[in-house]
Amino acid sequence: MGKGSSSVSSDVSSSTDHTPTKAQKNVATSEDSDLSMRTLSTPSPALICPPALPGFQNGRGSSTSSSSITGETVAMVHSPPPTRLTHPLIRLASRPQKEQASIDRLPDHSMVQIFSFLPTNQLCRCARVCRRWYNLAWDPRLWRTIRLTGETINVDRALKVLTRRLCQDTPNVCLMLETVIVSGCRRLTDRGLYTIAQCCPELRRLEVSGCYNISNEAVFDVVSLCPNLEHLDVSGCSKVTCISLTREASIKLSPLHGKQISIRYLDMTDCFVLEDEGLHTIAAHCTQLTHLYLRRCVRLTDEGLRYLVIYCTSIKELSVSDCRFVSDFGLREIAKLESRLRYLSIAHCGRITDVGIRYVAKYCSKLRYLNARGCEGITDHGVEYLAKNCTKLKSLDIGKCPLVSDTGLESLALNCFNLKRLSLKSCESITGQGLQIVAANCFDLQMLNVQDCEVSVEALRFVKRHCKRCVIEHTNPAFF
């Protein structure tokens, strides 16, 4: 085949289940020769494709090669698609040229706009269609984000090939890439993160949730070599116990900036081995945090929250749901965030009572969202104090709080007129009378959850009449 024909990079293994013909051997020989003639100035694009058997398809040599045994998805390298067919065997099989397709009449800027809505793997497929699409698919504006998903994809190799292609104009540095999302890619390892850390100094957002094979060392490299990183999601990464700079990075930086990491959003949900000492290190290094999620970090205690509030005074959103060792003393520390705190989730923290709620209500007057589901120590007194001090509350979840009754709902309705979402699921002491008081005062209510509550159909209809936009979640078969 000619110089523009497709070929597979030598670092991707290919397996076949049939004996090649003589013509196919000649084509393969020509492809190998063509591959050896390429220079580093004209690298091939990376393709993230599902497995496919090699051979001839529709009269053309297949440009896809992958393992047919393992069935895994891999990153593959191809040259730009040819402008015309040059091999005599293929020319005979080719069909007469049809008139230009409608999409080919679109100007380049429109095509780039269309490509901008495609995920990474589909964008790579588009690069195989023709030479024009190849050039448009690798427009730098389309490569500010890499998004890969799937449990079988070989993410380490995909990231290596993609970054190599994106670094062709600036060797070893990919300046346009700002976001990498590889959530749920269980085959991601430290090697893939090392590639990102070394090649993407302008990275601002990294999401690796559910990638349980990565460790602290790789995360340290990313935060050390990507100084502009602001958004980090390592939820479900059970081996990650801390966020910190590498020792080498700390030595190189001045004492004033040596412990500063620019991360503002950090999600460490389901990082089960995170302990108070690890949270202390995170707080000391990530002092600019505004959003922190520690759901199901079951080893954390009130002491860890004390460290957090000392260093991270700008936190707006905090979740410690299912952290069973957090108690009223921990809420006393959280209350020191004062009016900066807008979102707080303490769901299923069984040691929290009205005392902790009073601390938060007294000092965090601008609280907008509170999730206290399953905190069975909360009573009407806590809800009343919360309603009178946090009058701008918009969302409240007090489901599975059996000690909350209509009295608490009355206080809520008479003070929090901006309430939009209210969950009372499994609140055994709630009746239809309490719901009617809420509906009569909170006209902007948009969601009400009264599943497993003993409320009448008449009360539900009353809510629907007064709050016309409200979606009611219930378990009463008579109401529909």
Automatic annotation (TrEMBL):
Bias (Polar residues) ranges: 16-40
Domain of life per record: Eukaryota
CDD domains (UniProt xref): F-box_FBXL7
Gene3D superfamilies the UniProt entry points to: 1.20.1280.50, Ribonuclease Inhibitor (3.80.10.10)
Residues covered by region (Disordered): 1-40
PROSITE patterns, alphabetized: FBOX (PS50181)
Biased composition range(s): Low complexity: 1-15
Domain F-box: 100-146
Protein name: F-box and leucine-rich repeat protein 7
Organism: Rattus norvegicus (Rat)
Species classification: Eukaryota, Metazoa, Chordata, Craniata, Vertebrata
Name of the gene: Fbxl7
